[in-house]
Write a structure and sequence with these properties.
about 210 residues, alpha/beta, six-stranded mixed beta sheet, three-stranded parallel beta sheet, 5 helices, globular
Length: about 210
């Protein structure tokens, strides 16, 4: 499954590749994780943030492994990326609430094209309002992991309940995309396919 996910990511030839957290269950698999993740790269950069499971298991060991295979860990900071045509964008990480370092709003003078990786969609409201994010990429929900046909997810680990379970939303002009992710803590999904998410940013027509 994970090899297939990496194959699909490579085939998409991404400009930016962003890993959204919850990388491991047993820490003994961290070397295998590194082997898999280093097989795909974003043309303009490969970035990552941690999730709650990484915080619970061994944050430092997981971050060190990711860095060793070329993943730039954002933490609660940002990086500027410049495309060949001169377009500037900002890629930021928000690891709240699973980081000791607090999230800081993005300064107004920085580029307005802003992509924020936040493991949980629970951060969407303050990311949209405080930092005017263009796009927030999240996971954490596993899209419910089990979904009841005609009803949806039975359980979502979010303070907002089922409001942002999976898919594309717009909150205060900020686009939020919530992925179902690839892995599961319990190796079982019911009517809930794993996914990697490919987002195309297209300039709005004037």
């Amino acid at each position: 499954l994970y090899e297939k996910a990496m194959e699909m990511a490579r085939a998409s030839s991404p400009d930016l590749l962003i890993f959204g957290g919850d990388y491991l269950g047993p820490l003994s698999m961290k070397d295998r994780m590194g082997e898999l993740l280093q097989t795909v790269r974003g043309r303009l950069g490969t970035f990552g943030v941690i999730g709650n499971h990484d915080h619970w298991f061994d944050r430092e060991a997981i971050v060190e492994t990711l860095k060793s295979v070329g993943v730039e860990m954002l933490g609660n900071t940002h990086q500027l990326v410049t495309r060949e045509d001169g377009l500037e964008l900002l890629i930021a990480g928000c690891e709240s609430p699973w980081s000791a370092k607090a999230w800081s709003p993005i300064a107004n003078e920085l580029p307005k094209l802003r992509i924020v990786a936040s493991h949980t969609p629970d951060n969407i409201f303050h990311l949209a309002q405080e930092s005017e994010a263009t796009l927030v990429l999240s996971g954490h929900t596993h899209a419910g992991q089990g979904r009841i046909p005609g009803y949806g997810p039975a359980l979502i680990p979010s303070v907002h309940g089922r409001l942002f379970d999976h898919g594309h939303y717009i909150v205060d002009k900020t686009h939020l995309v919530v992925s179902a992710g690839v892995g599961v803590q319990i190796p079982l999904r019911l009517w809930c396919q794993p996914d990697i998410t490919i987002v195309d940013l297209i300039p709005a027509k004037s």
